[in-house]
TrEMBL record:
This is Metal-dependent phosphohydrolase. One of its GO terms (molecular function) is phosphoric diester hydrolase activity. Keywords: Hydrolase. PANTHER family: CYCLIC DI-GMP PHOSPHODIESTERASE PA4108, CYCLIC DI-GMP PHOSPHODIESTERASE PA4108-RELATED. It comes from the Bacteria. It comes from Rhodanobacter spathiphylli B39.
């Protein structure tokens, strides 16, 4: 599958979107995707796609820092395997991605947003060409931060109005970086410009509101916020995926469009894949796949005994396929480090 990010006119039919409301949006030729490959089978390819994306993002940032032109080829090489893996099995990709978050926030955030954009586009039934554009936009939307002083990006306190303006200038910087490249895909440009716009008009740079914000910008605004919440920063710890979704839901029809938030929640599930959770048995597990019929009962991998000591051999449990009298429930979501447990340390040891 080849996506041409240089295109200004779509090379394949795209969803026809109205500007009225998401609930009134019309989709032509939407695609119904289904996981074609089991999580266990796709996981090695997801690992490879992440390795490749990490290498390409490293090179992209090195090129920009060195004053070289952004390479459209590197962007395409990063997003094609990533999107292919998400389309085969979104659960496999997010299980692996959750265990493999890069130490550098900018890099891991770029890859996380790119993958989430692909998954959200898949859920919305967009054509593969559109999903590739969404993934490219997610990968590139923060490249302008390479032109912002690192001390401002990492500052733990409140910034002055002048400093806030400097941080916000990363949007214009990203557009300038991309404008010097061969990338002219309008979806990508819309994402770069509008992912900080907000439903109530409080965002930037243009103060757009409601459906004046391109649908791609509305999608990536939620994704950008969600991925930042679940990522540790120098000035605050990460929160769980479940709690991030709850906090975003509380902003419906203020910061973000209610219908878009609801679609994003359905896309990821109540306990998104990769979530660390505590079961009613006292055991700790990681969510490995969603059950589309019963969203509160995903498939999990049990990592510990009830006393929180690691198991020698992990076991898979489908919470939907249990005897009703002995059903095990998820009682709460966790973050890495709760009970001294980090799923990445256990899985990748």
């Amino acid at each position: 599958m080849y996506v041409d990010l240089r295109r200004q006119v779509p090379i394949a039919p795209r969803p026809a979107l109205t500007r009225t409301s998401l609930s009134g949006t019309r989709f032509k030729d939407t695609v119904q995707y289904a996981d074609r490959i089991p999580v266990e089978e796709e996981a090695p390819r997801a690992h490879a796609a992440l390795d490749n994306a990490g290498e390409m993002v490293d090179r992209i940032y090195e090129d920009i820092a060195s004053g070289r032109e952004l390479s459209v080829e590197r962007v395409e090489q990063a997003v094609r395997p990533l999107v292919a893996s998400v389309l085969r099995s979104a659960d496999a990709f997010f299980l692996v991605e959750g265990l493999r978050r890069h130490d550098n926030y900018s890099y891991s955030h770029s890859i996380g947003c790119s993958a989430l954009a692909a998954a959200f586009g898949r859920h919305m039934g967009f054509a593969e060409e559109t999903i590739l554009s969404l993934a490219a936009g997610g990968l590139l939307m923060d490249v302008g931060k390479t032109r912002v002083p690192e001390n401002l990006l990492r500052y733990p306190g409140s910034l002055s109005p002048a400093e806030v303006d400097v941080v916000r200038s990363h949007v214009a910087a990203a557009l300038a970086i991309v404008s010097e490249s061969d990338i002219t895909d309008q979806d990508v440009l819309d994402i770069l410009r509008s992912h900080h716009e907000r439903h109530d008009g409080s965002g930037y740079p243009d103060g757009l509101a409601g459906n004046m914000i391109p649908i791609t910008g509305r999608m990536l605004g939620i994704i950008d916020t969600y991925d930042a919440m679940i990522s540790p920063r120098p000035y605050r710890p990460a929160i769980s995926r479940h709690h991030a979704l709850r906090q975003i839901y509380a902003t419906r029809n203020t910061l973000f469009q209610a219908e878009m938030i609801e679609r994003f929640q359905v896309c990821l599930g109540v306990y998104p894949t990769g979530s660390l959770v505590e079961l009613s048995t006292g055991e700790v597990a990681v969510v490995m796949a969603q059950n589309q019929v019963r969203r509160l009962r995903p498939k999990v991998v049990v990592l510990t005994r009830p006393n929180k000591q690691p198991l020698e051999d992990f076991r898979q449990v489908d919470l939907m396929l249990q005897d009703q009298g002995a059903a095990v429930d998820i009682v709460r979501s966790l973050v890495a480090g709760d009970y001294g447990i980090d799923a990445a340390d256990l899985f990748l040891k």
